[in-house]
Amino acid sequence: MKKLFYVLIILAFLITSFPLNAQWRRAYGPYMGTTYHLASGNGYVFASAGKISRSSDNGLTWEDKSNGIWEWGVTALFVSGTRVLTAVTSNGISLIYISDDNGENWTQLNSISNVACINGFAKSGTKLFLSTRSNGIFVSTDNGSTWATTITQPTNNQNFNCIATMGNYVFVGTSAGVYKSSDYGNSWSYCNNPDAVNNGFTEVASLAVHNNILFVGFTEYGGSRLYKSSDYGLNFSNVGSGSWLNWVRNLFVEGDNVYVNVDDGLYRSTNDGVNWNFIGLKGASTLSTEKSGGNLIVGCSDVGIFTSTNNGAGWINSGWESNHGITSLVSLNNIIVTNHGSEGLFLSRDNGNSFTEYYNITGRLLYRVTARGNDLFAGTEGAASGGVFKSSDLGYTWNSIGIPNIPVMSIAFKDNILFAGSFYNGVIRTTDDGASWRQVNTGLTSLNVISLAVIDTMVYAGTNSGVFVSSNNGNSWSLTQMQNGYINSLTVIGSKLFAGTDNGAYALESSGAWTQIGFAYKPVNCLKAIDSKLYAGSTTGLSVSTDLGNTWISVNDGLPATCIYDIAVNGDNAFLGTSNGLWRRPFAEITDAKEVKSSLPTEYLLSQNYPNPFNPATTISFNLPKTSQVNLVVYNILGKEVKTLVNEVKSAGSYNIHFDAGSLPSGVYFYRLTAGSFSETRKLVLMK
User: Fold this and answer.
1) Which domain holds residue 166?
2) pTM for this predicted structure
3) What is the CATH classification number for the domain harbouring 679?
4) Stretch 518-522: mean pLDDT, rounded?
């Protein structure tokens, strides 16, 4: 009996000590999504990014608590005692849901109807108030179970934006200034603010109360201003203006601190607005703030939530949406840098266990991050703010080194020369670290350069019309025998060049011919050489070749159906940038991979189109686990259908659909895939 007991102990140890199967696992971030509202109470923090999430560890990790709520329309969030209230807009009508078990279950209330948009809650004593965009103010005396109208129509037809209480005073911010009630909302009067009106500020974005002082944030397209009143709205003084206050999103009060969320980070005042100090998240559009358990929690636009455990000295990216597309990765000195399309850079300094820094270095699109020596470089796009950025301090600060009006898609180095491949402008080079730049496009008949590579004295440029080569540092170019197709990536092993294209992977032979080495009729988004092995990221996952592309082995265990955009190795781990976020796995597991039998997709997947932005054509990929009626439609930003790409029954498999938008104007579009019970929508950007 004892012998059996010891055998069981040893078996349990072996099972728990060693993984039963090697596989990819999702990295801890970077987290995305837009977090409009935060609220805390009963030991929890609640957040909305359309749906409701909850944190039980003061904002460090989150779980979905949207059970019973229509997911993508949360407009207000509030904790009142043991009750959590949220307002949801569905088909233009606001609904109220309540939870009395901290978000485990939600109940829709029927006591309020035909309200267009509920945008805020506030509480004074036993009275609970809510404001609506165009249907006035409502009051509840039973903690939100039933509601009665206080103001049936907005005065002078202006919109109501926000609400706050101070004792028996109730304040509402409108599109025409501040109104107040001194009798719990039974009667109302206008709070005159001549300085704001004279300077063109009438739209109130946020209200907050601290020590019987009312703070008001005004926002207009010309800028923002902060005011405070110490006499219940009779008089106001200006306590904030200037370029730092570029767009007031929210005001939050905690203890002796007043916080203001703006479009370029978070500011704090500890002396009721006399002084404001920047405390972090530069480049992020911050939308909401909360404090819980000593942690400062900030909701941002598109980049999730950032939590500080040391009062703003450092930040940890948290949230729940980590499935956004990551198209570029680089590793340098144990630092992982990832991009997130239009939302800048995320940095991890602990091997991907957390992402603690975010930099929106351009305010626009970010295409490529790369490294040379101890320097990091980023290729970006943005009017007067794009071009090439450089960091010489491991990513702590970034500075523009030139060509600010040009979208830079790729970067390569040859001796002291930096080559930048761009959309519309071909190849641009600098020999003096960005002090001066020169376009070098003689013979380059395609000026959309997506990828670059260098072999000895030769520079190669991958375009949307084949591969070009220059033997004189770009002074002149000639087209190789790869004379068409979209060249997503170029990579080198020894003196051999490889290309990942929208029609498979290719190798350049010594004769000048290109030989296809796999992935026929499939886009290869990423082809990268690491330790003399080739790694190919496609719409069907990641494959590795140890023999220069003659044979390939799939290494997708644990990955969902996803599109691979980039791979990087940091220490002992490999990282994948995919259409479904960032994934991590011990590098040795994929270098020692064995051949496994390929199979059909196991789930539906709609990938982010590639390239994006595009001009004028792009590829949309999707997976079907079974035969389905498929409908793939492109819509403009107004929701009008502009193109039906697929409308037929298709068998199980992976598909790549070519979309030519040559007849459409530049702008933001959406494409929607419906297949069986599956439906998903993604955004694409046409830039002409």
Assistant:
1) 37-317
2) 0.74
3) 2.60.40.1930
4) 86
